[in-house]
């Protein structure tokens, strides 16, 4: 995806994965800065740890309480969160046509908080029910109550009133490869046509959660559009130039489809 963007932008650059053990995170950040790395994306399990380690953060990262993007300014790493606008770009065309906005958000980690931050920014007044097996949401939902009607629901009660939500979003890693037979919802009778069900997991493209929702008649959104959206936001943060979003999403889908094909053999 990023390589396709570099090609479209005629930029000579490289985007490569670096597995980092949590205990070596500080060393990794120092080493990548010393090696001349311009920017980084950060994923599970480092988003909240990096947030605590950087001394300068953008306003949106501060509100989201997590950092998934870093920019080296020559002196320090600057923390940013591109999940917020990346997620909104993946739903805004559908979300704007909803007359009633009642959202069930499955998960309470960094991605879930980014989604709530986006709703507070772009869709104030939305009613959001957050549920997580960890109970983690109670630690951060209160500041958002100024812009949203936000409440925490116990994980055991997440199936109650499923039919009353316009949106159901999975922001947990449940169902991510290799655990493709898992879903954050065990009971799907409440899902129905007219609902929009989104999974931010993108590997596999069609998770069990989405396949179950599709069988019930719901419209489903996979995680690739958010992936491409946050990637484009990252590029713009690093380079101060527009990113080729369409080329990025196309490349991501092609790569994931190829990956799914290999995995099924």
TrEMBL record:
Record bears the keyword Nucleotide-binding: no
A Pfam family reported for this protein in Swiss-Prot or TrEMBL: Shikimate_dh_N
Shikimate dehydrogenase substrate binding N-terminal domain: residues covered: 2-70
MF annotations from Gene Ontology: NADP binding; shikimate 3-dehydrogenase (NADP+) activity
Keywords (A to Z) from UniProt: Amino-acid biosynthesis, Aromatic amino acid biosynthesis
UniProt xrefs under InterPro entries: Aminoacid_DH-like_N_sf, NAD(P)-bd_dom_sf, Shikimate_DH-bd_N, Shikimate_DH_fam
Gene3D superfamilies: Leucine Dehydrogenase, chain A, domain 1, NAD(P)-binding Rossmann-like Domain
GO CC annotation: cytosol
PANTHER family: BIFUNCTIONAL 3-DEHYDROQUINATE DEHYDRATASE_SHIKIMATE DEHYDROGENASE, CHLOROPLASTIC, SHIKIMATE DEHYDROGENASE
The protein's name in its UniProt record: Shikimate dehydrogenase
């Amino acid at each position: 995806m990023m390589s396709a963007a570099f090609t479209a932008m005629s930029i000579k650059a490289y985007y490569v994965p670096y597995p980092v053990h949590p205990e070596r995170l500080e060393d990794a950040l120092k080493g990548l800065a010393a090696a001349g790395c311009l920017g980084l994306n950060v994923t599970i399990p480092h988003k909240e740890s990096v947030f605590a380690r950087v001394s300068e953060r953008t306003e949106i990262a501060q509100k989201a309480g997590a950092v998934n993007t870093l920019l080296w300014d020559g002196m320090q790493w600057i923390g940013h969160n591109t999940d917020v606008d990346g997620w909104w770009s993946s739903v805004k065309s559908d979300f704007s046509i909803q007359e009633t906005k009642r959202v069930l958000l499955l998960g309470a980690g960094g991605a879930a908080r980014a989604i709530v931050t986006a709703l507070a920014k772009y869709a104030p007044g939305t009613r959001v029910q957050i549920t997580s097996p960890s109970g983690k949401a109670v630690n951060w939902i209160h500041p958002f109550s100024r812009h949203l009607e936000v409440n925490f629901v116990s994980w055991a009660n997440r199936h109650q009133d499923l039919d009353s939500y316009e949106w159901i979003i999975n922001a947990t890693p449940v169902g991510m490869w290799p655990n493709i037979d898992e879903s954050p919802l065990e009971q799907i009778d409440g899902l129905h046509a007219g609902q929009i069900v989104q999974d931010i997991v993108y590997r596999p493209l069609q998770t069990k959660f989405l396949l179950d929702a599709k069988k019930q008649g719901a419209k489903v959104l996979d995680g690739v559009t958010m992936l491409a959206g946050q990637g484009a936001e990252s590029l713009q943060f690093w380079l101060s130039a527009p990113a080729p979003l369409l080329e990025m999403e196309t490349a991501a889908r092609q790569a994931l489809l190829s990956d799914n094909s290999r995995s099924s053999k």
